[in-house]
């Protein structure tokens, strides 16, 4: 067939041939998603090959074998469910001739795909012996060796692929540093330092390339193989462009991947995390995998061949051997597994001579030989690789001379292995339901004894045949002519014992066999043997067919199978009469047929119902009725067929919900496949792209979904699948829809502080309103410290709830918060900031308030005051709650809450009495209330008029003429008295204004004049005639006028007297004084010479000849200073120059020579062991003396345990850690050329008690 070269499939061993040059979009060549696996089965079993084929258009599938076609429909059954990709080949009742290579071919108009598998039929038992008799030259070991050889030749040996070093360097670029050495050794990189330098250069180049498409790459996790044999690796990508393509490469070749976790290469994306899976690992899957964004390598990792678990290609098969013979087990693995171990009865085999374990040179075939097998060696043998295992039974058969004693071993084996056969569902079988050939009488056993020529020779009464009903009692009895011992009883040649449910009795010469309740299995031929004589009789049990109780119990549980799988229901029964079986399904008779229909079979001791390929239509209630002449019995079972769910019911309604996104609506599927719906999977495809992106998984009880991650202005197609535990069903697809642009959401409300502590602050807020706020994806929270203008993000991802606890806070700091809404169209404007709140722990309730008292009352109000609670009784109070109640009421009413320590309760009833209490509160709660013991009346308090004067009140008020005069006078009186102002005993002039309010009366003179001077009086007169008076003098004055001209004269040598004309205001009786200022030059600053001069002359002392003196006089009073009056000419005394001589003092260098002397001597030290000791002294002398240290008259110079210092005459001897040996007399000797000085001290070291 002409075509293009073979294409590579995702599965090893599949060849694809493309028949056309170009394949249109949406179509593809056939390929295998699952290929049939090789099998090794026993003769008589059924072999089932399954292949899953894909391709568009749907390909046709053909099965072939090398020996010929598969036209025999009875032998070969080829089936495929409508709409399913799975194709099944079933070969019934295998024989040795069925060993062959079977080929599956899928063909459509664009190409064909082919794969092959092998079937090995193992012949055992009689047929194997018969074949060996016919072909004695065939040896089983040679047969296995030939098969191993053929298995090796099934494919050409793989050629070692040349490693691309560029991929190795990319692998090192993203590998962990701990793996550098292993990778370098593996690929022959010996220059380790050069490798590190090159990687550093490559990283710089890589960063520039990656920055084109990716913001950040993090959390790289290299390949790991799970216990299920699945390789996984993942990474986190922050893409700049969401539409960037991501590719997967293996050894430099791009490999396709999908999003279904059932395919071989799968990608699952969770936010920014990309999770890759490689399933069904094969040896050829080993290599270097790379993830690329567009054309830039992002991540490289390696799947080592040693990490791929070995799978079982040819499993173990049941082995049979005679006692003392050798049994052989062989298992073929997909790749070498050094850790493969053999086990017997789930326990590892001990390395003894009984077991011989070997492995083929290629490491694939593992062989176990059990030498000299005994009955104790029977059981399950298995080979485990850590991930996979294969097991088979060893059956030890008795030799021909074993006789009846071997039957117990057969029963044990049958009881251990049960009635399970192949993949069929068997419900057990009674112990004596059928007799095996090994339980039949054999030559040489008691059943083969010849009867006596004269049966009555030893038996006066022989056994007689009996017919009994099931459940009745039966007694077999015979009588001997003489005593021959207890004798032995046999049934069908098998010796009986008390454990078989029978009772033996001997009454003299009479021997009896008693059966309390006869069962159908106890029917048979019974023999009594005494000496060399025997007597036989037949026990017949008439009963209806019997189904074992354990089988009936198991049938009560529903039988659950997956669609497409074969179902075999085998029900064993016991009956000695011919039986007819009638199967029904939901009351309708099941008629056996061929092909894919149900098949009914009736065998020796069992009836069977077979469904070659179960479908949903096969589920229901089944019953089988077994009839015989003895009666009938019925068994019932429920069959549940599990399949993937059908597509949701359409049409799939798609509606553009503006800001919320795209809203989808569908109806549940008509058939859920027998499993409860778990969820729906919603996928989206953008117009112009071929990939589908999963956008959500709504729950099973929801048939609506909103995709908020669509882009405005683009077209999309959506599809929905129903998902159960069996997987996802077919998809319901929508028409193409255009998404219109949407508005941004509005700002949320101001956040409300719910709680605050040092660990976190909890906020709540209201959703925004207006356009763009219908579909909110979440909220972003920002915070800032009070007084700062910088907002920082609290959460990186939007939160759905309108409540959030901010934990990233610093204790004691004050924070503000704001919230912005995020919609599909993007984030909106932030809302207003919250109130500032401290991040600190909750407070304790405050203590009771102190000094509660009533400060004022009126007809409608009561004024209270109190002191804050004591700090020792609780935390600081943040406010106070004031409560009132009447004398006849027990209920306190809330009067108000204030942050200060005073409160006026208003709106009270006049002349009413009230009880008052005050409670301090804070964030920690309410404190203990404090109440007044007496009743408080709402009525004014009578207070005699009196003035409230303090120390700041002046006795005399002086005001500048022209200024405004405001004189307030405080008083206390209740009720309000009559207030009268007088000036010099007369009423005030009309231009003067007075006002009185709330204990304050005030005098106001808008423009003061000299005539306003006088004595002002305030008179308070109450209604009762009580009176209070207050008077004060007020003087209105102006700044004084300048004094007259200044005259200078020298009355005393060395002085100058300045006289001036007095200010005109002085003659008017205005008190004033003068200030005299002088300066030494015309431009120099004025300096005060005298102040508060009350005469009109001043004498300046210490006048120096040759200096000029200028004088200025200023008149002053309490209101200010006058204009200055200056001298016209300065005062100056001529200077007389005299000669003088300077005598320089003589200088002589001092003699500093001095012999040494100690300014501060040494002192005695008393120290514990291990402490530091520092002995210091101060020495003086010239020339500078040299200090030498001695201990017990021994010089310490050169002693490494001590060191000396000398800083500016302060000398010290330091011992870092003293010990008892350091105790003694220490001496410091200071010497120079003039003499020496000595200072001594004692050091005492106290030994430690330990």
Automatic annotation (TrEMBL):
Cytoplasm found in the keyword field: yes
Keywords recorded for this protein, A-Z: Coiled coil, Cytoplasm, Immunoglobulin domain, Nucleus, Repeat
Coiled coil: 189-216
Domain called Fibronectin type-III: residue spans: 647-742, 747-846, 848-941, 1042-1136
Biased composition (Polar residues): 432-442
Ig-like domain: residues covered: 30-116, 455-540, 945-1031, 1150-1244
Cross-referenced PROSITE patterns: FN3, IG_LIKE
Keyword tRNA processing: no
An example Gene Ontology CC term for this record: Z disc
Region annotated Disordered, chain positions: 415-451
Location of the protein in the cell: Cytoplasm, Myofibril, Sarcomere, Z line; Nucleus
Subunit text: Interacts with FLNC. Interacts with KY.
Protein name, entry field: Immunoglobulin-like and fibronectin type III domain-containing protein 1
Origin species: Suricata suricatta (Meerkat)
Source organism phylogeny: Eukaryota, Metazoa, Chordata, Craniata, Vertebrata
